[in-house]
Amino acid sequence: MQQTKRLIEQYYQAFNRGDMDTFLGLLTDDVVHDINQGDREQGKQAFAEFMQKMNHHYREQLENIVVMANEDGSRAAAEFVVMGEYLNTDEGLPEACGQTYRLPAGAFFDIRDGKVARVTNYYNLGGWIAQVDPE
Questions:
Q1: Where in the sequence is the domain holding 15, given as residue range(s)?
Q2: If we measure between CA atoms, which residue out of 76, 70, 57, 68 comes closest to residue 115?
Q3: How far apart are the first and last CA of the chain?
Q4: What is the dihedral of CA 84, 88, 93, 97, to 10 degrees?
Q5: For the whole prediction, is pTM greater than 0.90?
Q6: The sheet that has 58-69: what strands, in order across it?
Q7: CATH number of the CATH domain containing 94
């Protein structure tokens, strides 16, 4: 359990540093990524492409991170607050003009061989739109 908690803490520390090499290195090659209110993607390459897109459109830091894990360390969850800036318009979403946002979010993980094998992210998309949509 403690090893899994440390893994998830390292995952979010790498995210907050913008250290994509370390971040992606914590994933299995066949990682499953359930995108918030979207599709399921599989594979480290797909995850890397998703993160490249996200980093183009958004600048985010995660705060108040709380990590939980089951007894055998095979599953974990995290709750946190996303502090972000909307940098470039993302297709199908409101126009970006540097809006900032604060959004509670969470994630669920499967762990295999000391790496993240699945991550499912959740936040309230409607709540995010309400914060960034100038209309």
A1: 2-132
A2: 76
A3: 46
A4: 80
A5: yes
A6: 40-42, 27-34, 115-123, 100-112, 75-86, 58-69
A7: 3.10.450.50
